[in-house]
Amino acid sequence: MRFFILPPASPVALVIALAIISVRPLAVAQQAEVIDGVAAIVNNDVITISQVRELIGAREREFRKAYSGADLANKVREMRAAAMKDLVDRQLIIQEFKKMQEKGANIPDYVVDDRVQSIIREEFGGDRAAFVRTLQAQGYTITRFKEIEKEKIIVQALRQSKVSENFAISPNQIQKFYNKNKGSYAVPEQIKLRMIVLREGVAGDVPGTENKAQTAEEIRQKIVSGAEFARMAEMYSEDDGTRDTGGDWGWVERGTLNEELSNVAFSLGVGQVSKVVALGGSYYILFVEARKNASVKPIPEVRDEIERNLIQQERMRAQQRWIDSLRAKAYIKILS
């Protein structure tokens, strides 16, 4: 049997310190224990303490900045336990692939080469020299990096190969998920907003620019008297981002604007113009063209999204059942 795996199409971030997932054969690791140390034994292989540190080093440093005392200790403990589980699972998968190799399974060299070339192209703009310099700076050879990438391909491919593609999601499952997660499909209240902005200290070509508050009130009176808001915005607004589109902000939610402007905007009815709002050295005139009340997306709009979500959940559960079966047959001893 020939086992052929194509590399994934998505870009692979070159974060070597976090990419190291391989473990050393027991005979080799025993020689290195004096310098490093064994964190776990998985059948005849070991996971070293340095591998755990390499996997969690960056996150642990961030945790140490954000937490202290008992909170830090708990966070680090949880993170290390999760890293250890991940490393053990990955090693069990590598061991499973080695069994498959005895029956003819293989990852062709060109698959790994293509993966590396993709990394060079996507992460280094095709600059192989920069890629090599990065490897050398972190103490890795191209050969070692290829080994790492090969193991990543193996782990991903075997996980996927153990999951059936034929998950059937019933309408009842979709309805239950929708009912349980309605909050995820809530659509907040929205308004279609236009805005005119005048700023103190910005010279304009209209009379009275030395008093922007007065100018803003004069513009507002023109609008109240029947002038088109969009036309007034094109003529007078000093907001470069929206002036040419007549002050159009499109559909906005409350969080789009700061609290004071948001309170004014959402208090307006459709077709209403606000009073001049003075805020931070600027003067604002707001106009609401339309409104959408808060609502929940109906199930027909989200059915496909829910189905994809449920299928992904089924895939993850199937993968975990497979991993659990590998664990049940393995000798695993956590030492650190």
Could you name the CATH topology of the largest domain?
A: Triger factor/SurA peptide-binding fold
Structural class: alpha+beta
Strand order, biggest sheet? 1-3-2-10
The N- to C-terminal Cα distance equals 39 Å
Share of residues in helices: 40-55%
Low-confidence parts? 1-34, 205-209
Largest sheet report: 4 strands, antiparallel
CATH class bucket of the largest domain: Mainly Alpha
Number of strands: 10
Q: What's the helix-strand series?
A: HEHEEHHHHHHEEHHEHEEEHE
Q: Write down the domain tally.
A: 2
Radius of gyration, whole Å = 30 Å
Describe this structure in words.
With 336 residues, the chain is of the alpha+beta class. It has two domains: 146 residues, Porin chaperone SurA, peptide-binding domain (Triger factor/SurA peptide-binding fold); 105 residues, Chitinase A, domain 3. The protein contains twelve helices and ten strands. The strands form three sheets. Strands 1-3-2-10 form a four-stranded antiparallel sheet, with helices on both faces. The protein has a four-stranded antiparallel sheet with strand order 6-5-8-7. Helix 4 crosses helix 7. It is elongated. The N terminus is likely disordered.
Keywords:
10 strands, 4-stranded antiparallel beta sheet, Triger factor/SurA peptide-binding fold, disordered N terminus, alpha+beta, 53% helix, Chitinase A, domain 3, 12 helices, 336 residues
